[in-house]
C-alpha cells in the first residue's frame, strides 16, 4: 500500500460543499478516501459531488446544520450507514461575520450566532465523532483524526471581527486539549489555520481593489490561497504518516503571518 493510499479510510467534512472544505474533500477522494460532505444547502451539496466526480473514493453528501445537535447525530448515523466507520472528522463549517464593525456595537445576536456556528458547532460534531472513534479504539482499532478549520485570525485577533477571532482561538486550544486527552486511543487533533483564501466567504474582499492592493504585497507567495491548497494537509493528516503528529496548528497562508 502506498503511504497516501486512503482507500481504507473515511472522513466527514462539514462545510465540504464549497471553498476550503471542498478543496480538502476532492483531494481526499482522489487518494481513495471515502468522504461524506455536510452542508446546509442541497444544491451546493449536489454541485460539490459533481465537481469531485467519480474515480476516487466513494463520496456522499448530507444536509446538516452544525448549530443543530439532532441534525448532526442524524447525519452521523447516515454516514455510518453508508461507510460503516468514520476515521476522520474535518470540522470546517464556519461563518465569517459578514463585514467588520466595532466591538462597541456588537449585538448579542451576532455574538451568539458566531459562537453557536464556529465554536459550538465544532464541539457538537467532534463530540459525536470522538465517541465513535473511542468506542472503536476500545475494540482495538486505534485510529482517529479531529481537524477543525481555525484561522490566521486566531493569532492576529482581528480588530472589528473579534467574535470570529475568538471562536478560532478556541479551536486552537481545543486541539491541544483533545490531542492530549485522546492520544491513548490513537486519535490526533490538529487545527488548520488558513490565511487569505478565495472562497464564497471572502469574495467581497477579493473584488475590492483597495484590499487587494494593500494585502498582496504582504503575501510572500504573491497570490491569494485557493481551496486546492488545502488538499495536501488533509491527505497527510488522514494518512498513517501523521500518527505521531498531534496538538499542532498548521498555518497555510503563503507566508503572510511572519512577513
Ligand atoms: P465558504 O463560505 O466557501 O464555506 C463555508 C462552508 O461552511 C460552506 O460549505 C457552508 O455550507 C458551511 N456552513 C456555514 N454555516 C454552516 C452551518 N451552520 N452548518 C453547516 N454548514 C455550514 O468559506 P471558506 O471555505 O472560506 O470557509 C471554510 C472555513 O475556513 C471556515 O471555518 C472559515 O472560517 C475558515 N477560514 C477561511 C478563510 C478564508 O480566507 N476563506 C481564512 C481563515 C479561515 P452551506 O452554505 O451549505 O451551509
TrEMBL record:
Name of encoding gene: gno_2
Top-level enzyme category: oxidoreductase
Positions of the Ketoreductase domain: 9-196
Protein keywords: Oxidoreductase
Organism taxonomic ancestry: Bacteria, Pseudomonadati, Pseudomonadota, Alphaproteobacteria, Hyphomicrobiales
PROSITE patterns referenced in this protein's UniProt entry, alphabetically: ADH_SHORT (PS00061)
Entry EC no(s): 1.1.1.69
SUPFAM superfamilies for the chain: NAD(P)-binding Rossmann-fold domains (SSF51735)
GO MF annotation list: gluconate 5-dehydrogenase activity
BP-aspect Gene Ontology terms: fatty acid elongation
UniProt-recorded name of the protein: Gluconate 5-dehydrogenase
Family listed: Belongs to the short-chain dehydrogenases/reductases (SDR) family.
Highest taxon listed in the record's lineage: Bacteria
Pfam families registered for this protein in UniProt: adh_short_C2
Amino acid at each position: 500500500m502506498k503511504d497516501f493510499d486512503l482507500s481504507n479510510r473515511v472522513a466527514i467534512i462539514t462545510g465540504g460543499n464549497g471553498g476550503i472544505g471542498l478543496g480538502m474533500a476532492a483531494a481526499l477522494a482522489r487518494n481513495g478516501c471515502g468522504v461524506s460532505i455536510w452542508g446546509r444547502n442541497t444544491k451546493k451539496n449536489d454541485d460539490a459531488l459533481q465537481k469531485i466526480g467519480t474515480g476516487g473514493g466513494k463520496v456522499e453528501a448530507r444536509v446538516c446544520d452544525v448549530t443543530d445537535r439532532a441534525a448532526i447525530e442524524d447525519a452521523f448515523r447516515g454516514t455510518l450507514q453508508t461507510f460503516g466507520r468514520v476515521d476522520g472528522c474535518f470540522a470546517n463549517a464556519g461563518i465569517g461575520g459578514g463585514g467588520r464593525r466595532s466591538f462597541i456595537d456588537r449585538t448579542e445576536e451576532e455574538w451568539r450566532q458566531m459562537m453557536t456556528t464556529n465554536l459550538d458547532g465544532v464541539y457538537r460534531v467532534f463530540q459525536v465523532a470522538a465517541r465513535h472513534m473511542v468506542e472503536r479504539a476500545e475494540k482495538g482499532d486505534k485510529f482517529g483524526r479531529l481537524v477543525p478549520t481555525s484561522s490566521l485570525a486566531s493569532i492576529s485577533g482581528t480588530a472589528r471581527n473579534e467574535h470570529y477571532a475568538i471562536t478560532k482561538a478556541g479551536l486552537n486550544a481545543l486541539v491541544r486539549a483533545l490531542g492530549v486527552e485522546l492520544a491513548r486511543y490513537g486519535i490526533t487533533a490538529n487545527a488548520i489555520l488558513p490565511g487569505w483564501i478565495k472562497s464564497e466567504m471572502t469574495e467581497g474582499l477579493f473584488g475590492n481593489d483597495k484590499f487587494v492592493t494593500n494585502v498582496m504585497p504582504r503575501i510572500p507567495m504573491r497570490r491569494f490561497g485557493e481551496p486546492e491548497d488545502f488538499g495536501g494537509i488533509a491527505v497527510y493528516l488522514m494518512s498513517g504518516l501523521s500518527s505521531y503528529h498531534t496538538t499542532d496548528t498548521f498555518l497555510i497562508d503563503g507566508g503572510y503571518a511572519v512577513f
